Every structure is written in structure tokens, then in C-alpha cells.
Amino acid sequence: MGEIFSPGKLMLTSEYFAIDGALVLAVPTKLGQEFSFKETNDGKSLIFWEAHHQNKLWLKAVIDYKNWQILETNIPTSAEFILKTLKNVQLLSNTKFKNNFTYHLTTNLQFPADYGLGSSSTLMNNLAEWADVDPFYLNTISLGGSGYDIAVAKEKSAVLYQNKPEIKYEKVNFNPSFKNELIFIHLNQKQDSREGINFYRSKNKSQKLVDEFSDLTRKILLCSELEKFSDLLLIHEQKIAEFLEIPTVKDRFFADCPVFVKSLGAWGGDFVMSSKFDGFKDYFWGKDFNTIFEWSDIIGL
User: Fold this and answer.
1) Is residue 195 over pLDDT 80?
2) Which of 17-21, 47-51, 62-66, 195-199 comes out lowest in average pLDDT?
């Protein structure tokens, strides 16, 4: 039995504009997704798939990969997605699903699925590492998206990422002196990234605006003072709000918050980032946002 692990991610800058080549700063999380595998030379051409959420069984499927048919499952729609993805693995791999072996493949997502930390991207990266295929291409044909989350999962590091004119990224040392002042609050709901991306794509945008987000990302990465960091994030939020023509998360939920609040990734759900202030826990708890992490709780650097 072999094992692979990919960390989850938090997207700190550029959000939807990553699709059009804006520079992204993203960091890994301590929690991610485990993948274990066992191969048996029995000539049966079967896949026994088990997906666990926090060590509790969520999805089971038995797949005949000679004919690409689902023989058994408890969640047909999810099993169809797994079948499609594994079919793509077969297409790209020189060795997997080519030899009539039986495969026992098991995943375990270490964080709640509604956290938005990358349940799909960690799966893609784990499968790609196992099958020795390009994780970015596997992700593109199976899911879509900008691919920044694949870079984080692959490198297990903070990254600067850009997908246009071609995919390029670099590991960076993002270790702000004020990191222990930063907090991450879950908004009690999962935002549908694809829905948000479709909405973003329906709007006209300029290269100048894309470049402005790249410039903000560079400044945020190099920032050494919390006050300046806060100012840059407020500018970032306002630019996206004006473009999308929807209120910022602060205007919607935290208008009386004395510090910045910034969306991370798809707007309207998942996590936001803020900073500590007197009584910050009581403030967020009082608004029924009870899941609050400090930097050292969640960031895997």
C-alpha cells in the first residue's frame, strides 16, 4: 500500500482574475487530502474506490475500467465524476489502467468539504503524482480553473502563480512579520467556484485591470507592515467589488468591523481573512461566525 498527500490552499490575491493571467499569491494549509493505493495483478480490470471525509466513508464505487462502467456506488453523480477523471488518468498515463490489474484507491479529505480549501485540486494532484502525469493538464481536462491550487498542492509551498501566456509559478517565502495578527474566518457556506467563474467571464475586462491585480499581488507579497498590508487588501477588495458590481464581504456581513476583511477565492463563501482587534472573537461569534483560525492553526508553512 502506497500513500501520497497534498495540502489544501488559500488564495490570498487576484481571485477570478487569475483566469485571465493575473499574478496570484496562494499558501498551503496544514490540512489536505491523503491518497492510498494498492494494485493487484488478478486480470479483473476493476477499481475499488473509497472516498472518506475526515475518516468517515462518503463515497464507494466499483468501476469496470475495461468498459468504463460503474458496477456499484452509493452516490451515482459523484461516481460519474470519478469515472470521468480516472478515464482521463488512463488517457494520460503510460502505466495506469492498462494492464488488467485491480486497483484499490482510497482518499481521505482531512477538512470539511464546505471549507473550500481544495478538495478537487488535492485529488487531481494526488492522482497525477500516482500516475506520473501532468497535474495541470489532468486538472484542465477534468475540472478547469486557473490551476493555481494545483501549484500549491504540487509544491507544498506558498507560490506566485500565473497561467497566461503560459503556466509559470515559483515557490516564495511568504512569512510576514505580522502573521500572528492575521485570522481566518469561515462564512458557514461553500461558494460554487464554477458559478462564480461563469459570472466573472460574462463581464468585459481589460488587460490593464488584470495587470493592476498582478501589481497588487507583488506589493502584498513584499509588505512588511500590517497597516500597509491592510490598505492594499482594502484596495484589492474594492477593485473586485466595483468590477463584479456586488458588495464586498465586509459591506455585506461586517460593516462595523474596525479592521479589514478580505474574501479568499470565490466571493460569497468559504474563508475570509482579517486581523485581530480587541474582542475579535466575541465580535465574529456574535454574528454566528464561530470558525476562526489563527495563522499557526491553518497555514502550512
Assistant:
1) no
2) 195-199
Q: Which amino acid is located at 242 in the chain?
A: E
Q: What does the pLDDT read at residue 194? A: 65
What are the start-end ranges of the H helices in 73-118? 76-92
User: C-alpha cell of 192?
Assistant: 460554487
Over 90: is that where the pLDDT of 83 sits? yes
- Give yes or no for residue 98 having a pLDDT over 80: yes
pLDDT at 227 over 90: yes
Show the beta-strand stretches assigned E in 15-109: 24-40, 46-53, 56-64, 69-73, 102-109
Cell numbers for 181: 495578527
**pLDDT tens digits, one per residue of 253-273:** 999 999 999 999 877 668 999
Of 273, 296, 26, 1, nearest in space to 155 by CA = 26
Q: Is the peptide bond before 165 cis (omega within 30 degrees of 0)?
A: yes
**CA distance linking residue 113 with residue 118, whole number of Å:** 9
Collapsed DSSP state (helix, strand, coil) of residue 122:
helix
Q: Which long-range contacts (CB under 8 A, 24 or more apart) does 223-231 make?
A: 223/176, 224/176, 224/177, 225/178, 226/176, 226/178, 226/181, 226/275, 229/176, 229/178, 230/259, 230/260, 230/275
Rounded to the nearest 10 degrees, the angle between the axes of helix 76-92 and helix 135-142 is 140
* pTM assigned to the model: 0.93
C-alpha to C-alpha distance for 109 and 32, rounded to whole angstroms: 6
Buried b (16+ CB within 10 A) or exposed e, 243-253: bbeeebbbeeb
**Beta-carbon contacts of residue 164 (< 8 Å; ≥ 6 apart):** 20, 21
